[in-house]
Specification:
By secondary structure, this protein is an alpha/beta fold. The chain is built from 11 helices and 14 strands.
Length: about 300
């Protein structure tokens, strides 16, 4: 525990909540500069334009509109034990990737930047969609680099429908605690309490199979899923795609032993193997892992691949 953390512990909760985001923001600014990056506030787009050093020696432009988005963008890709970062650097160049639960788009934008991937951003939360759209536009405007993308403002689920997206925190960029439809399909442990609804919005629901077969979007070669416990329904809406075996690898954040077991069984029955796991909170009772599934022929390539420094 740092000295700053020890001091914060003795302060009233209200004071902690006021000071901590500002302190973390100052640390993030310092950390970005230490990495060789830069930032500048842009009034027109309502946020900081970050130039983040990347393994291909070209800075990636990211718009961060809140402290939370700024902190996450600055630290993204710096944990070399994070297997999702390895996965992003491992996939084939110019692949079609479905980024499901995109949040502010860091994974998908990194794939576009490092791998020239054609990224399908699928995200229900309006503030996150705005950040993604603005970043895509600014990358073209400032970097003169077009990001191949489809931006899909919808919740990824088991079928096409139309339901309420409940937000359990203030509707600002960087928040991720949202619920599409019924709470029972989400994980609520580990600080994910969804009892209190701050505000809501009606949102289209879409499935991977529907995007692929009904709307004729390009078939995914790689799929990333991060939906806080809703992943069972996402997988149920992708069974045709899974059976087709057109996807080379899936990176799925899964929470809870029951979900881990059921999703793993589906993937194994359809010819995928478990390549690796990344445990988000080792030792925590409700396990949350990134599980990486892939076709068996890609396993050796994965095992031999080293994350860039």
């Amino acid at each position: 525990m740092t000295i700053a953390s020890k001091i914060a512990k003795i302060l009233p909760k209200k004071t902690q909540n006021f000071i901590k985001p500002k302190y973390d923001f100052l640390r993030a600014k310092y950390f970005l500069k230490q990495r060789g990056g830069s930032y500048k506030y842009n009034k027109t787009y309502g946020g900081w334009l970050l130039n983040i050093p990347m393994p291909n020696n070209l800075d990636m432009l990211i718009l961060a509109r809140t402290y939370r988005e700024f902190n996450r963008a600055v630290r993204f890709g710096t944990n070399k034990k994070d297997l999702l970062w390895k996965w992003i650097n491992w996939i084939d160049n110019k692949s079609v990737v479905y980024d499901i639960g995109s949040a502010n788009g860091l994974e998908g934008l990194s794939l576009a930047h490092l791998k020239s991937a054609h990224v399908h951003f699928i995200e229900p939360y309006t503030p996150s969609i705005e950040t993604i759209l603005k970043t895509i536009y600014l990358t073209k405007l400032i970097k003169n680099k077009a990001i191949k993308s489809e931006v899909i403002h919808a919740a990824c689920t088991n079928k096409e429908d139309y339901k309420r997206l409940s937000m359990h925190a203030q509707p600002t960029p960087g928040e991720t605690r949202n619920t599409y439809g019924d709470r029972k399909d989400y994980e609520e442990g580990g600080g994910r309490d969804r009892k209190k609804v701050i505000i809501s919005q009606w949102i289209k629901g879409i499935s991977i199979d529907s995007l692929n077969y009904n709307y004729k979007l390009k078939s995914p070669e790689y799929v990333k899923i991060d939906v806080d416990g809703h992943e069972t329904l996402v997988i149920n809406g992708a069974l045709k795609t899974i059976k087709s075996k057109t996807v080379k690898s899936w990176a799925i954040e899964i929470t809870g032993e029951e979900r881990i077991k059921s999703i793993t069984n589906i993937m194994k029955k359809n010819g995928y193997v478990v390549a690796d796991d990344f445990d988000h909170y080792p030792g925590y009772k409700i396990r949350t892992i990134d599980r990486f599934f892939m076709k068996k022929e890609y396993l050796e390539s994965w095992k031999n691949f080293k994350s860039p420094k």
